Known about the structure:
heterodimer; A: mainly alpha; 0% strand; B: alpha/beta; 38% helix; binds adenosine-5'-triphosphate
Amino acid sequence: MFELFGTVFEVFMRTYPGFLEATVVTLQLTAIGVILGTVIGLVFALMKISGSKILQWIANVYITVIRGTPLIVQIMFLYFGIVEIYTMSNFWAGAIALGVHNGAYIAEIFRGAIQGVDPGQREASMSLGMNRKQTMQRIVFPQALRRSIPPLGNQFIITLKDSSLVYIIGVSEIFSLANREAAQSFQPFESFLVVALYYLVLVMIFTYLLRWYENRLDVDKT
Amino acid sequence: MIIGENIHKSFGDLEVLKGVDLHVQPQEVVVLVGVSGSGKSTLLRCFNFLEMINEGSITIDGKKVDPKKDNLTKIRAEVGMVFQHFNLFPHKTVLENVIEAPLTVKKMNKEKAKKLGLELLEKVGLSDKADVYPSKLSGGQKQRVAIARSLAMEPKVMLFDEPTSALDPELVGEVLQVMKQLAEEGMTMVVVTHEMKFAKEVADRIIMIDQGTIIESADPENFFGNPQHERTRQFIQLVE
Ligand SMILES: Nc1ncnc2c1ncn2[C@@H]1O[C@H](COP(=O)(O)OP(=O)(O)OP(=O)(O)O)[C@@H](O)[C@H]1O
Ligand SMILES: [Mg+2]
């Protein structure tokens, strides 16, 4: 037991400069994945609630395909797909893949949040003489946005962990570093234990921050 | 002020309103009663074009509304509506709730809207709550804010759909008081309510709806004293 502690600590001390750098990459991937996913998600959510059958169909196809295939396949597909036509770094190919993947999930988050707003809100707004656009912009969307913050936070944490999969296209985020370390040092167990701790600590920090933010939102308004 | 003629409304196969004629005079207070499911809410919602009628016509302030051509948004602004569950905007303060429509619909400037909003809050006795969020209010206070919010658009008619049904008994009075005051000031009102005391005191006319048609229409004295229809007699027994 003591021995294990010792070797884990030793691996930790040896690798932390590299891990800190790789953590920045992981966080960047996560942030871009979520921001891009939010933009894509918003567009597809609006398509889904639009009256247009064609737009709804397009959104449904997108969401079904993304949710029906593994992320790792999407990463490979996009990587080879994009890099074929357009040269870009592996980092950006990975970040875009995460964004495209998240887009489908975040679209569903937004759609659910919009449809979850009490229909009475829309009616009250319409009865005051506000038109559809004003009702959406000023009454429905702000409430939907607030409702979507907890699931978006959740999605952020999922993305943080999912970003490990872009190691497959050679992006130097923390999992790929652990992978390399495991092979080079012949200490796979310790290496993966250390990387697990990195993820765990990151997830705990963000969970805490998100909770703090949600509580702050709840103080006055429900 | 508001005239409904031969109003028919169905939801799928279910015909809810079967040819309703209702003429509401300016400054008149009409109380609508009827058992659950008789079509009271549906009728009010048709008057506000939250539901579209299948047949018949609605005339507001002398202008027959053509739902296909007319700007319904504009017409809704002239017909105020107060809901059973208040439907205040939870992300806006009390004052913001009241001035939202004047700001966005009438493009009123902020100073003027604020002044109007505070006047209306004073009228419903809630000046001190201007800056709190609705979640901090009691049901009675919420409904008074909802009334002020409706009044801010200076509607020609006010529709009330069971405005006190969701309230604890001790909070009903404060809302009815505000409504009574409105009636005294000459607001044209159509009120769905089970508060028979309010109906007796404030209504010019009480109308009984049964299975989608009007079966009785009389001033309170005759409505309670000399009901013509058997169903009305049963209803009166039920509520008294
Ligand atoms: N949007 C809708 N779709 C389908 N059916 C509806 C809809 N709105 C109302 N109905 C039906 O129409 C009938 C009349 O409803 P309405 O709400 O007008 O009754 P009400 O007189 O207001 O009753 P209550 O006293 O319970 O409020 C009911 O059978 C109801 O189920
Ligand atoms: Mg009703």
